[in-house]
Amino acid sequence: MFLYCLFPCFLWYTIFIGCSSVSYLTPLGKPSQEVYHIPRAFLNPTDNLLVIFEEIEGYIDGVQILTVNRNTICSYITENYLDNVHTAADDAKRSATLSCPDSKRILNVEFASYGNPFGTCGNYFLGNCSSPVSKKFVEKQCLGKSRCDVPFDKKIFDRDGDLCPNIPKYLAIQAVCGEKK
Known about the structure:
It contains 2 helices and 13 strands, in the order βββββββββββαβαβ. By secondary structure, the protein is mainly beta.
């Protein structure tokens, strides 16, 4: 579970979790820490009490409590991202890596797009450019495996070389892990 504070606040849940003080503002005037992680081990099945001490104006409208689904995994890479040491030989090795926790396996590919997808893990969308073979190729590479690497290879996703010229390419993948039945 994550707690997002859009203003400086103290968080108290059985033990002290963290704080963001007015003295810890970014140059833009925002708190330097806006996200607090509450480990699931701290939570009871029911009747949890979360106390928030807000320092400035007393408004807690910006507080959101979110749970994270650990079975959803994602990878997002771009052709324009260069590692610290990058050579032409590295291009053949670049790939999007998906890895399931524990002994789980990839059961479903919910999203895959080579082109200009946008969004974040759990909320990806197709852009106006997407290879039609993206999802099928990722499924072939990953389904049933606990870990897979999907090559970031124009020859696979854009065989004719005419997929949306002059648009930077990205590869976004979202999959679901689980126990194989």
